[in-house]
## 1
Amino acid sequence: MKKLIAASTSTVHGSGYLEYLLKPLGNLFEGIDQIVFVPYARPGGISHDAYTAIAAKAFSKLEITVKGLHLFENPVAAIHEARGIFTGGGNTFVLLDQLYKNQLIEPLKNVIANGTPYLGTSAGSNICGPGVCTTNDMPIVYPPSFDSLGVLPFYLNPHYLDPDPGSTHMGETRETRINEFHTQNSVAVLGLREGSWVEVQDEQMHLRGPLKARLFQAGQDAIELKPDSDLSLI
């Protein structure tokens, strides 16, 4: 019954905010004229109002109005009553901390499971997995738990970057970091490159977009998944 898009990013190089996703978003939110926007991740420390205005401008192209969750007196009721939900990117730990403080983890899980269409980008996608330990963000706040929504059965690493063979950087690659994660955890991790997303329709789950994704599983070599791969097999 789920209808969900978890995208690596809100903006790909050379296009506007959410522009590359407009067609799938039209399908995701078909027949819906207003959605609730969760602005808690606050990229760059932007205000909730300013962030909501960015989302509203993008969705106006689909003739969908946007209301920020911070404007509701009762956020839990707002999530239960929302016809559609979008959680934007930014700092994953700030986002998760605010979800816990506002007692929104279980309400979000429940409405997504019951079919409320959900869009996440970057941090808003990170929280779709069982936890947020594979985010690229700095832990600038300390949420009560790293556990998140668990509406996807694997962890995500949005903005996944391949090693640059010409780079002189001697630090860890993204792949190294994810392999470190698997020394302590057994759940699979999907590295989503920019412009790719996970699409869930009922029990069907697929990789969408023009690029491959990199799948990491504990004790196995990483593999490349082609666009439109069936992710329900993970």
## 2
Amino acid sequence: MRLKGKKVVLLAENNYEDMELWVPYFRLKEEGAEVTFVGTGSSQSYTSKHGYPVQVNKEAKEIDMSKYDGVVIPGGYAPDLMRRYPEMVRIVKDAHQKGKVIAAICHAGWMLASAGIVKGKKVTGFFAIKDDLVNAGANYVDEEVVRDGNLITSRKPDDLPAFCREIINALAK
């Protein structure tokens, strides 16, 4: 229970990649973290790429990142929907400004680019968004997990063990 007392926001929107939301959720819970599902506000429930629903606990507008230790952003196509909501982008910006852990996997790099927090940072993500990350000023590398300060990124579901391990290590400090 290395994360007892830690509070983490896990962002949700339609078309999230199932494993990239649920695996971090269960690993964080297993380590004792309190995880809050946060949605854009367009619904109380969002459906994954494969039809699995997630019920959110709060809307983005309700989140004060000073009360949380980190934010996890799953991939799939959800990040393209998330970044259309200024309050979702604000969560990521606030987390960055406050030095909180920010973890993004697969297409979640879109949220990092929209929040303007990747310039000069070493990151990874799904290969199809490499150009978006580079154009936002990131130093893109093809590795299973990359940590640059408080920013943790991974490429795809196969990287989830390393991604979750790095999130837990970062939050445990």
## 3
Amino acid sequence: MRRSGYDPETLSEALKATIDRPLTFMEVCGTHTVSIFRQGLRSMFPEQLRLISGPGCPVCVTSQGEIDAALRLAAKDDIVMATYGDMLRVPGSSGSLQEQRALGANVRVVTSAAEALDIAVRNPERETVFLGVGFETTAPATAVVLEQAMRADIRNFSVLCLHKAVPPALRTLACDPELAIDGFLLPGHVSVILGVEPYRFLADEMHIACSIAGFEADDILLGLLDLVRQVRTDRPDVRSMYPRAVRPEGNPLARESMDRVFGRTDREWRGLGVIPLSGFDLQGEWSQFDALERFGVSVTHAPPPPGCACGDILRGRLDPPECPLFGKTCTPASPVGPCMVSGEGSCAAWYRYNKGGNAQCRI
């Protein structure tokens, strides 16, 4: 579907005509990763353009220690663990939520934080813990539900708050000399909430081109063309090429809700390490809904699965086929790492759209 008014073939030709040297861009959003593969866009890129995938999959960047904390909570008696479906099969150090459910744990798949709160209301005799993952896209919904729980005095509901903020991770990636990123294709969904200004430091301080793009073929190609033009003119900026969804100011009401409920804390990301002030945590009166505090569980560092290269893939240092486990011991049917589990994971996208990794895909 064409949404920007531009023809993808025309945009592809413009890309090839405009690029004048090798450039490396990173698409930050997992939905972009999947959309690019699904629509076969890599075949439309100029030879000099290298596009690498970043840490845009919230399931994938959830650290091993955070997964283990979720498993410890789910194993407790009289707890209902409510989780998004993508988290169900992510391997922890000792199994997954799906395996715990098979052993009798009360793990339920929900599609929203509101659905998790409804489980708590309908089961007042049991504690319901919502596994809150995601970036600024899903964090506002968690904040709103917690405000509802506070007003209704629902005391058997809590949140394992693993939400993360995207801009601090982009700073970490921009400072990585091994990547030498020329530009970021910024996430559309997160930017609906944040708007434009939270990314401004990338252009002003770090001289990196930034373009916010939608998810259709013409949206993505238009965003890439904008990045090439910024680099070629040596005028890095933060521009929205997705005006039908992203307003310059974002969504102030959603941000206000997050600001009321969440504080910011240092948080470990898979592959990126501990990033200062990149995690949302429950502050002040909202800490009564913190599942870690309520049940005496802590998040501790845990090593990734042996041989799994998810960390390097999320950092953009490797493409999925370069992982020694990819398509062999690690497949969607038997995943070793989260990048092969999530529908937005780079490994899952490479596997699905490249016939199990056997077909060559130019990067």
## 4
Amino acid sequence: MNPHKRHDEEKLASRLLQEIKGLADHPLRLMEVCGTHTIAIFRSGIRSVLTDAVDLISGPGCPVCVTPAGEIDRAIALSRRQEVILATFGDLMRVPGSSSSLQQERAEGSAIRVILSPLDAVQIAQENPDRTVVFFAVGFETTSPAIAATVKEAQRQGCANFYLLSCQRLVPPALRALLSAGKVNIDGFILPGHVSVIIGKAPYLFVADEFGIPGVITGFEPLDILEGIYMLLRQKKEGRAGIEIQYSRAVKEEGNQLAREIMGEVFVPADACWRGLGWISQSGLILREEFAAMDAARAFDLPYVEASDPQGCLCSEVLQGLRRPPDCPLFGTRCTPVEPVGACMVSSEGNCAAYYKYGGIP
């Protein structure tokens, strides 16, 4: 890095830190919604230098973490079918279901492929016309446009052996559910940058208008996060609540209209279950009727069966911001990134994994 630029950034960071501390009469509880923010906050040391001004808590912002065991069980059931090749992203391989994981199933002979792009699943279907290929699709609004484009491409190519098991989730309904439950006291939201590139500002307005809580759509560099925190504390000091955009170099107020249009062409919102938050109205995405032939849940008659977290695991409470990872009796002992018990320790963006790597082990 250019030494002059680095000097300027250090000066700006120092100024922001001082202004943040000057605005805080007492530690305010701010929730970072995105798992990428959680990792960035730990890596940069922001949490440790702001303890007198800000109490940072993590929320349900990791799509792998909020995928409930019942959804993993459905994917496992599909992978056990002889004719099926299951394609999925790598972070999902070790997430525990009620009695197994995709990694364990692959070790026992199931045909499970780790892919880097949704289009890889279509290619697998083309290369294996005598097999049924199911893409287990997990993600937030960030990845949904690409998944929608993949579904359209599979239809265009006439891939009759391609299916989608959709486990996609929408962030704003989860925030509404979290606030409506009234279990956790939140003074402000550090809102996700990547998701907001797609959806823009409007879907979060209810946070300020209905609950009186400010939010700032924030980038992922340390200076972004410090500025986002400063903007939140300034709102609190001025006695107002609104949704502001710090990450203006990437996020437009209206979001990405093209991306939202392709999502709307392929998917429709539906009620969905979240680990920790339970069933949330209109918080998932399922295929529209015109794409129903690709719906693996329908084609293979896969009912959703709820399953509880492993005994002693506090992932559900961690995802709600009610407990911190070190509060869990399994943290750092029975549950580690090498041998995870809960989903929050599996994902590279999971809160427990972040605490384990950066926050110290009890």
